[in-house]
Amino acid sequence: MKITGEKLMKAFEHSVVEYVEHEFIASFLQMSGFRVVFDVALKPGSRVLSVEIRNSQNLYEKLNLQKVYNVVTSEWLMKNGDGFTMFKDCEAKYLQIPILDALTNHIKKSKVLNPSPVHEGRITVHNVFPLKKGVPPLHDNN
């Protein structure tokens, strides 16, 4: 879809509007090609501190609110899934292929798959609530 940086920013804000004690409630946006910094101590609607987007040279640049970007997303999100209403008026080209098939085809074509985990720094969260004593984190990497 074609989407402005302003609408992308709204999507990231919506993504963390319901952050409660170490948990993003339902609508946390799963993404690739972005670096986003949130501060959950700030009031909802102003929690996104910065957004960078990876460009065609594989370098990150600051999100430009006036620029129009091409991004790939699911039809479900395009149709207001999880309350992402900012996508509804975006120009979209629907692929006639399921997402899993598109991913499989991409892997076969590129012939490169690195199964080693890589920390890309996609998501940084500031002012996370302290864990209650004896309560394990919700996002355990085991």
Instruction: Tell me the series of helices and strands, N- to C-terminal.
Output: EHEEEEEEHHE
- Going by helix content, strand content and strand pairing, the class is alpha+beta
**Uncertain residue ranges:** 137-142
Cα-to-Cα separation, first versus last residue: 35 Å
Number of domains: 1
> Mean pLDDT, as a whole number?
81
Count of distinct strands: 8
Cα radius of gyration in angstroms? 17 Å
CATH topology, by name, is 5'-nucleotidase,  domain 2
Please tally the helical runs, counting DSSP H or I stretches of 4 or more residues.
3
Per CATH, which architecture?
A: Alpha-Beta Complex
Residue share in helices? 10-25%
Beta-strand portion reads 15-25%
Q: What's the shape?
A: globular
Largest sheet: 4 strands, mixed
What's the CATH class, please?
Alpha Beta
Strand order across the largest sheet: 6-5-4-8
State the fourth-level CATH superfamily.
5'-Nucleotidase, C-terminal domain
